[in-house]
Amino acid sequence: MNAHVTAHVTADTTAAATAPDGTAAQETRPHAAAKPVRWAADAVATMREGARVRLDYSAQSLWRVDRMIEEIRRERAPIEAVADVLRGFGAYAGEVVVRRTGAEWWATGGEHWVRTPDGRLWDPIEEARRSFLGHGSLRLLCRDATADA
Fold first, then answer.
1. 121-122 and 111-115 as β-strands: parallel, antiparallel, unpaired?
2. Which parts of the chain have pLDDT scores under 70?
3. Contact at 8 Å (CB) between 25 and 17?
4. CA–CA dist 82, 84 (Å, integer)
């Protein structure tokens, strides 16, 4: 899967909940962002305490994250064993994009994406998995997502 998901998907995949009046209500940032924001904060804390690496939600910090993913990959851990770590790194990258561009987290079916103000959807959590497999980069995802910001 590409890090960039086409914008036409937004209308069809935006998570909906039933409002008290029975109508469908779109998930708002606070609800859609709750889990990825927590996952990102957990990654920041884990890196600070465990690896003594400081992550400050800057685009430059994604160099460190990409290097950490590369180190984990070199250890040849099964992806299942590092899935939570990769999810945290992906959420962290998503938060970097959100903070730099004013983007929003969107969620549906347990999946989380970042929707930039230009309407494009990005999947930083999947990009972290792709990075682990040697086919992606959170730094480059951020660069592409923030190019016009």
1. antiparallel
2. 1-30, 149
3. yes
4. 6
Q: What is the pTM of this model?
A: 0.79
> Tokens for 130?
């792709």
Return the closest-CA partner of residue 64 out of 142, 7, 146, 149.
Answer: 142
- Is residue 138 within 8 A of residue 62, CB to CB? The reply is yes
Angstrom CA distances, 24 to 13, 32, 112, stand at 13, 15, 19
The pLDDT tens digits for 24-53 are: 444 444 588 889 999 999 999 999 988 888
> In terms of Cα–Cα distance, which of 48, 78, 80 is closest to 64?
48
Q: Are 91 and 106 in contact (CB under 8 A)?
A: no
Q: Which positions ≥6 away from 4 have C-beta within 8 Å?
A: 120, 121, 122, 123, 144
- Whether the CA torsion 69, 74, 80, 82 is positive or negative: it is negative
- Rounded Cα distance between 96 and 99, Å, is 5
- Among residues 2, 30, 1, 4, the alpha carbon closest in space to that of 15 is found at 30
